[in-house]
Amino acid sequence: MSEYLHDANAVQGARPESLPAGTPPLLSLSGIAKYFPGVIANKDVSIDFYPGEIHALLGENGAGKSTLMNVVTGLYQADEGELILDGYGVTFDGPEAAIRAGIGMVHQHFKLVSRFTVAENLALGWSETRRWLSAAALAERAQAEAKRFGLDIRPDAPIDSLTSGEQQRVEILRVLSRGARLLILDEPTAVLSPLEVGELYAALRRFRDGGGAVILISHKLDEIMALADKVTVLRHGRVAGSHRVDKTDPATLVTEMIGRPVEQKTAYPRSAPRGRADVVLALEDVSFRDSAGRLRLHPLSLDVRAGEIFGIAGVTGNGQSELADILAGLSIPLSGKVHVAGTAMQGRGPGEFRKAGIGYVPEDRLHKALAPALGVTENAVMRVFRTHPVGGRMAYHAAAARDFTRSLLDQARVTVADPSTPMRGLSGGNQQRLVLARERMISHLALIASYPSRGLDIGAISLMREALAEIRDEGRAVVLVSEDLDELMALSDRIAVLCAGRLMTIVDRSGFDRATLGALMSGRDAGGGA
Amino acid sequence: MSLSFSKGLTRRRLLAAAGCAGLPLRAGAATRFAPIAEEDLLVGFGHTSPVNDGGWTQMHDKAIRALKDHFPRMRSLYVESIPYSADATRIFRQFVAEGAQMVISTSDYGDFIKDVANQAPDVGFLECDGNNVTGNLGWYYITHWYASYVIGIAAARLSRNGRLGYIASFPTTSVIASANATLLGARSVNPEATMRVISINSWFDPQAAASAGAALIDSGCDFLCGIMDDPGYLRVAQERGVWAAMWNTDMRQFGPDAYVSSVMLDFVAYYRQTIEARIAGRWRPAGTFLTLGHGVDRDAWGARVPLAIQREADAARDRMLAGWSPFTGPIKDSKGQVRVPAGQTMTDMEIFHWNWQVEGVSGLV
Amino acid sequence: MSRRTRLAVVPARRIMIGRALALCAVAVVLAIVLVLLGLPLGMVCGLVLKSTFGTVFGLENLALYMTPLLMTGAAVWLALRAGLWNIGAEGQFLAGATAAAAVGLFAPLPAPVALPVAMLASLVAGGAWSAVPAAGRAWLGVSEIITTLLLNFIATYLVYYLVTGPWADHVTDAQVSSQRMMLALPSVYSVVHWGGPVALALVVALGALLKRSRFGYELSLCGSNPDSARYAGIRVAPRLFTALVASGALAGLGGMMEVLGTVHRLQGGLAHGYGYLGIVVALLARQSAYALIPAAFLMAVILNTGIVLQTLQVSASSVLAITGLLVFAVAVSDELAAYVRLETKS
C-alpha cells in the first residue's frame, strides 16, 4: 500500500476535473445494514468511495454515521450487505484487518499516548518497528514520514505539549504512515483554530490529489461545501441523498438531513423593546491560573446586563471555559472581583451563585454538571435539592424529587421511561437538554451556557436558540460561549473575543462581521494585521 | 473488678454459677456420662498446631492414632491449627453439633472451651493444660518438671561454665515451671549455675529459635534448652559445639553430637484409659496429672553424654519415681526472696501454676 | 463474530441472574476441589447444611458471625457511598473494641449505664481511628486506601501490647487476652446477644437515612462525581470527612458488639479479619444498604462452612479461597451481565 502512496505522491499535480471513465471505486458499500437491540443503526446503505475524492458524510447525531464508519473500520461487522475493496468482497474481523487493507481513521478524540513523544507515538503499531531502537532512529523515521506526506511535526516533542491541531497532525501522519489509502476523519475541525483549519484543508487536498480517498464526517455545512467533492446525507440510518458538491446547495442538504427544510435564523429580534439594563454580572480585573500554574486568563473586566445575550467567541481552549467557571462561581479567580447584581462574591461558592440566580451549562456537562452513575432524578434535582419541596431542613423528599423530575423532563421534552435509570443511559442530546432545562429554571438573573449546541441536532439547536432568546426577552441575561460564529452573531447583543486568555475586544451587534471576529479569534487585531 | 480473685475462687464461683443455671452437678453427672457403645462414640480432638508439627501436637496425634488399635469402631474428628480466638469456640461447638460425646483439646483454650462446655452439659470436655473443672469439663497435664529437673542435673555437669540458655515461647506458667525445674536440677550439683531466657513468642519458629540459640551461645551459654516444637536451636548447638536438650520428641537426628536428652511426651496410655472410662460410663471430669514415667519422661541419653553423668541424673529420677520431690524449700525467687520456706514441698498444682522465676533465672518474667 | 454489545445501564434482574450463576459456578468449583481432595461430596454437603441450618449451634454461629460482618460491611458501604475505600475497618473495629473493653474492665458502673457508655466510647474510638485518614483524604487528597490500611497494623499491635502487657489476664492465664469482663450485652437467646438485632436495625436505619436525608443525597453526589457535587454547591471535603469518620464509628461499634457480646475478653485475634470481610460484604451489597443483610448472611454461611470443613481437615484458609473465588466470580458476572447478544432481525 505504501508504494501506492509513494507513487501517488510522485505524480502530485492538479486534480483532474473528473475521474477517467472506468476508474473503479476504492471502497464500495453495498446494502449495508447494522442492527442493535430495538434500533436500526444502518439499513440499505450503498455508497461508492473513489480514489482522488473527498467524500463527506452528513447527518444529525444518531443518523448512523458513526456506526457505518465502525463497520468500515472493522469495529463492527455488518449484519447485511457487503464491503467491496478494489473490486473484491472483504470482511474485516477487526480494526487491524481494516488497517492492513489501507483504511485508517482519525478519531475525534485522538488515540495518542500523551506522555510519549511524537516519534514514539508514530512508532506504535508500525509493523516494522524493531524490538530495540534508539530515540534518534525513531525521530529520523518520523521526520522522513512527515516529509513524505508534507505534514510538519516536531518528532521529539511530548504529545501533551502540543496543541490540538498539532496532535491531529500527528494522528493523521500516523494513519498515513501505516499505509492508509482511505482516510476517515471524524469532525476534524471541531478542535482547530481557523489557521489550523486552513492547514488541515491543504493537507487533505494534497492527499486527495495524490490519489487518496477521504471520508469526512461532519455536520458543518460550510466545511463540506468548501472541502468535499461529494456528499452523502444519512438520515435514520439510510442514505437520504448523494450529490456532487458543486451540483447541490446547503438548503437541499439540510432538508435531506432533517427531513424538512430548517433555516437557522440569523437573528432573534426582541419581542419587546429592551428595558432598563442593570448590570447583573461584573468582572473587575479578573485573572486565573490553573492548577498546573499556567495563566489561563489575563486580567480582564466586563459586565453583563439584564436582558442581553453576551457572546463569548474564541477557539476552544483559549480561556472561555475558565471564564465561564468564574462567572458561575466554580473557579476562584487569581485576582480581581466578581460581582453578582452588585454584590461582591468573594469567598462564595457555586451554591451561593446558584442562590443568587446564576444558572450554568458547563462545557463538559456529563462530568461537571451531571453524575453519570446516579439516576435521572438525582441529576434533575442537583440544583434544587436544598429548597422546598425536594429539600427540608435535613431531609430529602424522594417523592417530591420524582415529581420535580417529571415536570423538568416535560419541559426539556425528554422522554425517560424510568427516572431512576442512571444518567449515562441517556443519549448525549437528552443529557444536554436536561441540563439546559434545569439551569434555565434556576437562572433568575443569568444563564451561562457553554457550547449549548454541542451534541444537539439541528432541530434541537433551533429550539435551544429560541429558548435563549426567550430568556433574554424575560429580562434575564445570557452568557453564550460558542465557537460557532453564526450562532453567536445570530443571538448575541455583544460579543467578547478571547484569544490565549486575553480579552481581545468586545464588539457591539452593529459591529458584527465574520472576518473581523475570525481575525480576532486567531489573535490578529481587528484591523486584520499580522 | 475481679483482679483479686485467686484461681480457687474463680473455679468455685464458676461452679456456683453452673449450679445456679440448674445443672445438676453430682447426681446428674452419673447419668450424663452413661455407658456408650464403642461404635456410637464420637470424639473430637482440637489441636493448636498442625498434626505434623514435629512436637507437641504430633505427640498427641500419635496417641490418637494409637487409639484406633484399641477402639477400631470408635469415630473421631480432629481440627488442627485452631486459633486462639472466638473461632476456637465455633470449632468446639461444631464438634458438639456433629454429635461428639467427648471433646478433647490438646492445648489450653480457656473460656473458648469452657463456654462451649457450659452450653453442652451432656458432652464431656477435657482440656490439656487447662485449669477448670466443672460438671462436664476436666483437664490433664504432664508433670514435665520432674523430667526437666533430671535433664538439669546433666546440664550442670556437661556445661563448663554453668551458664544455661533457655529458648522460651511465652512466659506462661508451664514454661516458667520448665525453666525453673531445669535450673533447680542444675543447681543441685552446681550451686553457681545460672539460666538466661529468651522468649520468641511462638511455639514453632525454627528461624527465631535458631537466632535466639545463637544469641545465647554468643552471650556465653554452652548448654541450650527450651520448649520448642522444632529442632531449630539444636542445629545451632550442633554447629557451634555446645549441648542442647529438647522437648516433646526425640530429635537427636538433627544434632547427634549436641543432643543430651528431651522431655518426652507419651499420651497413649492416658487417652486409652479416658476412652475406656467413657465407654464404660465411668468417666468423670477431673484434673489429672500424668506423672514421671506415665506420660512424661526424659529421652534416652545422647550418644556423647558420659555414662557417669547419665547415672548421676538417673539416680535422681529413681528417687523421684520412689516419691521424692526435689521442689522442696528453701526456694528463692530471682529477687532473692524466699518463696518456698525450708521444709515445705511444692505440690504439683503449685508447680503447674508457677508464675515467678527462681534465683538464677533471668529474662523470663 | 462479535455480536455482543455492552449496556450502559444494566437491569437489576440481569445482575441478579448473573450473580446466581456466579454462586453456582463457585459451588461447582468447590465441589470439584472437594472431590479432588477425596471427600465424599454428598456427605460434606449434608454435613454443611445440617451443621449450619439444622442445629441450634449452627444457627447461633450464623447470628454471631453476621453481627460483626453487618457492622463492618455497613462501615465500608457507607464510605463507598462517598466514593471512599475504607480498608481500615479492621483497625477501627479493634479501636472500638478496645474502648469498650476499657469501659468493661475499668469503669465501676452498673450495666445499664456502662453499656451506653461503652457504646459511645466505641463509636468515638472507631471514628477517631479513621479521623486522621479522613482529614488527609478530604483536605490534602492523601489516598485513604493506604492510610486506613496502615492504621490496621497499628491497631492490631496496640491490642497485642495491651493484652500481653498492661491489660493481660493474670487470673486464669489466658493467652494474649484481657481478663474476662463481667459487662456483657444482654442475650437474645443462648449465646446470641442483642448486638445482632441492633446491627440489623442500624443497617436498615442507615439505608433509610441515606435515602431520605439531604446528607445522603449529598454523599451520593460526592461519591459519584465530586466535580458535579461542587457544581451543585456542596462542600465536598467536609462530607468526605464526615462519611469516613462515621464509617469508622460503625466499625468501632461492631468491635464493641464483638468484645462485649461474643468474646467477652479483649484479645489479639479479636478482629478475625471482619474488617476485610466487610469490604466483601459491601461489594456484594452494591448500591443498597438493605442488601448488606443477605450479603453478610452469605459471608456468615461461608465462614461457618469453613468451620465445618476444618473438621474434615480442609484448611481454615479454604474460607479465604472461597471468598476470593466468590468476589472474583461476582465481579466477572457483574461485568458479563452488561453484555447482551445482538439480535439480527431480518
TrEMBL record, chain A:
Q: Is Nuclease among this UniProt entry's keywords?
A: no
**UniProt KW ATP-binding keyword:** yes
**A single Gene Ontology molecular function, please?**
ATP binding
**Where are the annotated coiled coils located?**
none
Keywords recorded for this protein, A-Z: ATP-binding, Nucleotide-binding
**ABC transporter domain residues:** 27-261, 281-525
Give the matching InterPro entries.
AAA+_ATPase, ABC_carbohydrate_import_ATPase, ABC_transporter-like_ATP-bd, P-loop_NTPase
One Pfam assignment: ABC_tran
Q: State the superkingdom.
A: Bacteria
Provide the protein name. D-methionine ABC transporter ATP-binding protein
From TrEMBL, chain B:
| Keywords associated with the record | Lipoprotein, Signal
Q: Which residues form the signal peptide?
A: 1-29
The yes or no answer to whether the keyword Repeat is present is no
TM helices/strands, residue ranges: none
**Phylogenetic classification of the source organism:** Bacteria, Pseudomonadati, Pseudomonadota, Alphaproteobacteria, Acetobacterales
- Family annotation (Gene3D superfamilies): 3.40.50.2300
Q: Is the keyword Lipoprotein in the record? A: yes
Indicate what this protein is called per its UniProt record.
Basic membrane lipoprotein
Q: Which domain of life is it from?
A: Bacteria
Domain ABC transporter substrate-binding protein PnrA-like positions: 47-284
TrEMBL record, chain C:
Main location group: membrane
Q: Which UniProt keywords apply?
A: Cell membrane, Membrane, Transmembrane, Transmembrane helix
Q: Which residues cross the membrane?
A: 20-42, 62-80, 87-107, 113-132, 139-163, 191-210, 240-260, 266-285, 292-312, 318-340
Q: Where in the cell is it found?
A: Cell membrane
Q: Please, which domain of life does this record's source organism belong to?
A: Bacteria
**Name used for this protein in its record:** Inner-membrane translocator
Please give, as recorded in its UniProt entry, the membrane topology of this protein: Multi-pass membrane protein
Q: What organism does the record attribute this protein to?
A: Asaia krungthepensis NRIC 0535
Which InterPro entries does the annotation name? ABC_transp_permease (IPR001851)
